[in-house]
Amino acid sequence: MSEPKELSPSFEPVAQDATDLPEGWLQVQSMDLDAQGVARKPDGKVVFIDGALTSELVTANTHRKKNNWEQASLVAIHRESSQRVRPGCPHFGLHAGACGGCKMQHLHVGAQVAVKQRVLEDNLWHLGKVKAETVMRPIEGPAWGYRFRARLAVRHVIKKGQVLVGFHERKSRYIADMQTCKILPPHVDAMLMPLRALIASLDARDTCPQIELACGDNVTAMVLRHLEPLSADDLARLRAFGAEHGVQWWLQPKGPDTVKLLDEGGEQLSYALPDFGITMPFKPTDFTQVNPHINQVLVTRALRLLDVQPHERVIDWFCGLGNFTLPLATQAREVLGIEGSEALVARSRENYALNQALALGHKALSATEFVARNLFEMTPEMLVADGAADKWLVDPPREGAFALAKALADIEQSRIGAEGAGPLPAGAEGWTPPKRIVYVSCNPATLARDAGLLVHLAGYKCTAAGMVNMFPHTAHVESMAVFERA
């Protein structure tokens, strides 16, 4: 387990000398990246407290000690935060068997947003030495029923004589005994107990470890991972359940490439981006955003910030199945989408062709090319070979876009003749860097690292940054930043 990270206070702490408190009491000064309260003992030692909120006076039980810090669990609250709320789910909490899917249900959702915004700002400054000129208003959406994608663990617990379906317990490999889940769409939440009964009825109940959920606008798909072939009776049970509950079953006997529909036909899994007239078909194991409500707003804001003009060429890095690429193709002269997965590139091309066909009688999509490439091995030479673009959209996984940012920085350092810089790559004399970059991030630490390269070495300034509450009640921080040529 890595060392906890302390942040600056998320809210103004109450001024009180720790030495004035009754013995054993702690004043919580802030919250950390894992939604733990951060307090200091009279001797200055930091204590990370599960379940405690900023400004509270608490007592806690220490269960891990290091030289400079301790980890503890909340025992009692002597002064409660005004931001503390009753959790919306009975399985949330610090009790034995509590679900580990959420970490912040005890904190008002508006305060959750404030904490995450501070995480973003702190990371940008402390890790990248970057401060955004403007802090954008957070993107928020429904706090419940938002999770249209989920990986549910399955376990037949022989000793208990029951099947469990859900997320893992807090800090445990065991599956929580979940009877409801309020972050799942209501119709899926209502299916949890019937799902348990279904798995319990299967001949293969001991060899089905996982169900992957993927909801589209009109289709609810479930991928059943099974380690042995399913009997005819089991297939009949799945079909009956699907007919009763409106589930499109997919089967996965081995790796992700073995996923296939139980029965061909029926409506295709897809979601819409109505602001751009785009429809995005996808397979249940493809990467799509967990929260479709937020995704629609995210795409719209990203393109508004990019401000693409009809004469401009745009590159969409880490394009996936075209979530940003196809909307960009409604505005730009030319778009290049680059992605590491061959399968997603193939899906992008299919989605482009579909939407081009749907655009008959309307404005056609601009010329768009999709390329598969390992973007974690990007070089200045490769960057120049892709040609100049007026704008970039960057949407990397948690690892960030270090190689891409470094390649851009290396070219700039060569161009200005910085000490230790290498020669300009062939063809770079006429190559121009993008005027604007919109960077969508699911990890503020790697965003901050890459922002440091862009601002301090690549010739950009960070004009705006803001958080996106893609995962309410969790400590996950999604964000967006805008970089302009300085």
Automatic annotation (TrEMBL):
Any single GO molecular-function term of the entry would be: RNA binding
- Determine if Metal-binding is one of this entry's keywords: yes
Q: Which reaction does it catalyse?
A: uridine(1939) in 23S rRNA + S-adenosyl-L-methionine = 5-methyluridine(1939) in 23S rRNA + S-adenosyl-L-homocysteine + H(+)
Which GO BP terms apply? rRNA base methylation
Write out the entry's keywords from A to Z.
4Fe-4S, Iron, Iron-sulfur, Metal-binding, Methyltransferase, rRNA processing, S-adenosyl-L-methionine, Transferase
Q: Which residues form the active site?
A: 442 (nucleophile)
Q: What does the function comment of this entry state?
A: Catalyzes the formation of 5-methyl-uridine at position 1939 (m5U1939) in 23S rRNA.
Q: Which protein are we looking at?
A: 23S rRNA (uracil(1939)-C(5))-methyltransferase RlmD
**Gene that this polypeptide is encoded by:** rlmD
Q: Which family, according to the similarity comment?
A: Belongs to the class I-like SAM-binding methyltransferase superfamily. RNA M5U methyltransferase family. RlmD subfamily.
- Quote the NCBIfam families the UniProt record gives: PRK13168.1, rumA
Task: Extract the InterPro entries matched here.
Answer: 23S_rRNA_MeTrfase_RlmD (IPR001566), MeTrfase_TrmA_CS (IPR030391), NA-bd_OB-fold (IPR012340), SAM-dependent_MTases_sf (IPR029063), U5_MeTrfase_fam (IPR010280)
Which organism does this record belong to? Acidovorax kalamii
Residues the record lists as binding [4Fe-4S] cluster: 89, 99, 102, 181
HAMAP family assigned: 23SrRNA_methyltr_RlmD (MF_01010)
